[in-house]
Structures are given as C-alpha cells and as structure tokens.
C-alpha cells in the first residue's frame, strides 16, 4: 500500500467510528459518559455495535462477557439478545463489576434477558460453568483474562459458537507505545496478545479472522 491508501484507511476508520457513535441511543451515551466520569474509559462505538450484530448473527441465547470495563460493549451485548436469553458478566475488578451490577439492576425491570454479574477471577469462575452451553464469549480487560478464557472456550462453546477477543492490538494499555503494531514494544499486554494470536490461529478446533475494528478484534468460531 502507498501512503494515500494508508491515509484513506485511517480516514475510513474515523468515519465509521463517528457514524457508529452518532447512532448510539441517548441512554447509551449517558452510560458512556457516566462510566468515563467514574474513571473507566470506554472503547470504540463501532466495535460495540459489531458485537451487538454478532449476537444476532450467531442467533445467540447465552453470552459470556469477560472483563466488563467497557460498559457500553456489555450493554450492546444485552441489546443484541433482544429481550431474551442470558448474559453473564464476569470481572475480578470490584469497580468494573459494581458499575455493571448498577446497570443490570436498572435494566432488570426493562428486559426479560437474564442478567448476572459475577465478581471472580476468570480462571476460577469459567471452569465451574456447564460445557457446550454458550453461543458467544467476548473477552476484554487484563491480559490474564484472554488466556484463561481461551483455555475454557472449546469446552464451554456450542458447535459453531464464537469467542471474540477485543483490543487484540493492545492499544488500551497506558504503556502500549503502539501496542502489537510496534515490534519493539515489549509491554506485558502486547507480548500476551502476540502469543494469543499465534495460539488461537494455530488451533485447528477454530476458524479465525483478525479485524482492525475498534482496537482490533480476533474472532474464532468453533468448528
């Protein structure tokens, strides 16, 4: 690609992000603002919108959200379930799970989707769940969440179930220095995401695709 092509790609990312942000509801905007005022940065609006679409695409009725710092993404997963099914949010962070519980308490009278928020380490909680009972797992947050979630994914997912890793390019780290894109960058999350990418893509139990949406999504579908 020449410089013009790269410039156009950057402009297209900005256009899509602005477009997705403009489509957010008043409630979603208020939730984004509240979370950011509480010191919890929110991710890409386009990424959250795509996650909602994935719920519809796989006709999901059972979803796990690992790492709930992006409250907007979690709410879009709830929206994707369209007043049915179940969403389980798990986070070891007391701040993140408190915000999600507040949101779920408010939503409980507005939706028939079963909502549960669990404050526990991922590697402790996920092994307790029933096998082949979930359609979609979305992973965010600390690097530890990613490996622990993928270890359980083959067992937890139904056939053709999907696991999505957000921020696979490691842009959300304060010390990212370009994240995965910078070969010289050796911060913990960038190292972890490079390893995860190789592990997931080489696993013959899954069909995978890496996309630049938001801060990078790695999508893996169980065969």
From TrEMBL:
Question: Which Pfam families does this one have?
Answer: Methyltransf_3 (PF01596)
User: Quick one: a GO biological-process term for this protein?
Assistant: methylation
Q: Does the keyword Methyltransferase apply?
A: yes
Single GO molecular-function term?
A: O-methyltransferase activity
Keywords of the record, alphabetical order, are: Methyltransferase, S-adenosyl-L-methionine, Transferase
Domain of life of the organism in this record? Bacteria
Q: Tell me the enzyme class.
A: transferase
Identify the EC number(s). Answer: 2.1.1.-
Q: What is this protein called?
A: O-methyltransferase/MSMEI_4947
Q: Which organism is it from?
A: Bifidobacterium pseudocatenulatum
Q: Which taxonomic lineage does the organism of this UniProt entry have?
A: Bacteria, Bacillati, Actinomycetota, Actinomycetes, Bifidobacteriales
């Amino acid at each position: 690609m020449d410089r013009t092509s790269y410039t156009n790609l950057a402009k297209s990312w900005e256009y899509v992000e602005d477009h997705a942000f403009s489509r957010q509801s008043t409630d979603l905007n208020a939730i984004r603002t509240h979370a950011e005022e509480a010191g919890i940065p929110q991710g890409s609006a386009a990424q959250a919108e795509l996650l909602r679409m994935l719920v519809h695409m796989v006709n999901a009725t059972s979803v796990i959200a690992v790492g709930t710092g992006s409250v907007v993404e979690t709410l879009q997963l709830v929206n994707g379930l369209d007043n049915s099914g179940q969403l389980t949010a798990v986070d070891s962070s007391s701040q993140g799970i408190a915000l999600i519980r507040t949101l779920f308490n408010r939503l409980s009278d507005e939706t028939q989707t079963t909502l549960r928020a669990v404050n526990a380490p991922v590697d402790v909680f996920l092994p307790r769940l029933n096998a082949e009972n979930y359609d979609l797992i979305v992973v965010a947050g600390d690097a530890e969440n990613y490996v622990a979630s993928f270890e359980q994914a083959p067992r937890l997912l139904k056939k053709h179930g999907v696991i999505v890793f957000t921020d696979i390019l490691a842009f959300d780290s304060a010390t990212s220095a370009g994240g995965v894109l910078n070969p010289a960058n050796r911060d913990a999350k960038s190292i972890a995401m490079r390893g995860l990418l190789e592990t997931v893509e080489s696993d013959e139990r899954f069909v995978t695709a890496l996309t630049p949406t938001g801060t990078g999504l790695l999508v893996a579908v169980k065969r």
